[in-house]
Amino acid sequence: MTILLFVGYVVPHFFAVPQISFLSQFQSSPEVTDTIPTDTLPYIDQLKNSIPVIKVIPARKSNREVWMVGKGISLPNYLLRAQKHLEKQQGRVLRMEELAKPNAVNFDFRTPDGDTLQIELRTSEIFLDSASQIAVAFMVDTLTLESLNALNKLPFGYALLITPFQAPPSLFYDLDRLKNKELVIWLPMESYSLQENRLAQDAICIHHTEKAIEEKIENAFSRIPNAAGVATRMGQRAVEHRNLLNALFKPISEHQRWFLDLTQNRYSKVPEACKNFSMTCKQITPYTTKVSLEKYISDGLWSATRTGSAVLVLPLTEESLGVVKDLKEKTSVQGTEIVNLSNVIATGE
């Protein structure tokens, strides 16, 4: 099934209001009794696979046909998948309505062929394998022998956020000894307290020219050429400046890499600026000491089942390594698959 606690579709807040239409932008349709015509079955099968539907209970008398979906993903997420598939094929959602019975919604839609169907979407008691995904990333400054051994014992892949500019040669030697890793450039960027930070001289700042920013990016990729993407380190001030982001995204997109905004700045212009480039950008919430590691990971697991994917960004410490060592058992229970960070970003969930 996919913790940057990232960015995907916005889940509609409809379950608090029972028995009402919960996507107000869709018009309600009159009651219809059409059965599924034979000539629409190929598209219906495509739609079922995209959701995915694990079992169909045929309609009886006045009851709707029931599409059973696996436990481990929320009904809003399933509905958003169906909406995306319908709109891509020129179909249309007509109504989505919560029912009085738990874990069920009415789902009315028009197929690309113009046929109107009324379906009940219902969650089964069976977990859908790999229904959701979660990724784990560690913020790294140094690698000790203990952390190297602990990382190599993890039964899943992980990402390591590395700041290349001041890293000692021994760090890169140690990285080569790790298995199942994915490297990410942890890029220092201007924050509101940058002057006091030891990384100030290597940070990308708002007064830098486009050429200077490009040179820093190329320098970073020369040190970590196999980096899968770039993530912000600090950067709360930098992400508010569109010109800086345009200069930053140009070389990153040319390297065909993705970008993660970890600043939690609600005024960040990363989503807007990213649209001008052929690359993927996401905003993810890293761990902070405001909550416990256990609570942060628990929230990430819940988010994966609710939205389909999540990213955990943790400090590389003895404590965090101890907390995640049994993560695979926890994800298996809820049908979530641990995948590489790039996999989560590629899903677009």
Elements, N to C (H/E): HEEHEEEEHEHEHEHEHEHEHHEH
Q: Characterize the biggest β-sheet.
A: 8 strands, parallel
Q: What value does the Rg take, in angstroms? A: 23 Å
Looking at the structure, what is the overall shape? globular
The total tally of domains equals 2
Strands, total number: 13
Q: Ranges with pLDDT <50 over ≥5 residues?
A: 1-40
Class from helix and strand fractions: alpha/beta
The CATH first-level class of the largest domain comes to Alpha Beta
Helical content class: 25-40%
Distance, first to last CA: 12 Å
What count of helical segments does DSSP give?
11
- The appropriate CATH architecture of the largest domain is Alpha-Beta Barrel
Quote the average pLDDT. 86
**CATH fold annotation of the largest domain:** TIM Barrel
Strand content of the residues, in percent? 15-25%
* CATH-assigned homologous superfamily of the largest domain: Glycoside hydrolase/deacetylase
